[in-house]
Structure formats: C-alpha cells, structure tokens
Amino acid sequence: MTTVSIRLPDALLKETEKRARELRIPRAEYIRRAIESLNASAAAQHRRRRLIEVSRRVRKESLRVNAEFEAIEDAPDA
User: Fold this and answer.
1) CA Rg value for the chain
2) Using CA atoms, how far apart are residues 56 and 48, in angstroms rounded to an integer?
C-alpha cells in the first residue's frame, strides 16, 4: 500500500474525524472509503456519458432503418 500526504482545510478534517468516530472506523479508512465512493460515482457518470454519446451516434441510422421497415410493411408487393 502506498502512503499519500494531503493538505485539508481544518473544518474538513474535523468533519472527517467526527464522521469516522461515528462510524467507529479509523480516519484513514474513512478517507479510503470516501475516495472509493467518489471513484465509483465518477466511473458511473463516465459510463452514462458514453452511453448517451453512442446512442446519439446510432439514432440517425436507427431512424433510417425503421423507415425502411415501415416502407416494406406498407408496400403491397413486398
């Protein structure tokens, strides 16, 4: 495991220590969990953005294919 040194505003450190005590976990564990939580949230947000991007790219093609299917369904000789 790697050691990381960070500077925190006093108020944030006090709040962190208070919450860690409430959960009965060490401050370092609390900070690790906070980072893990933010990492998971950021990854989920990235996945959502990628899905939206891909959806936009295929939307036009999907509409074209749907129009072709409708034309075939409505054609009496199809």
Assistant:
1) 26
2) 12
pTM greater than the 0.90 cutoff: no
Provide φ and ψ at 11, rounded to 5°.
-60, -40
What per-residue confidence (pLDDT) applies to 5? 94
Which sequence spans correspond to the domains of the chain?
A: 10-74
Q: What is the pLDDT of residue 57?
A: 83
DSSP letters, 6-73, are ----HHHHHHHHHHHHHHT--HHHHHHHHHHHHHHHHHHHHHHHHHHHHHHHHHHHHHHHHHHHHHHH
Residues 33 and 19 sit within 8 Å (Cβ to Cβ)? no
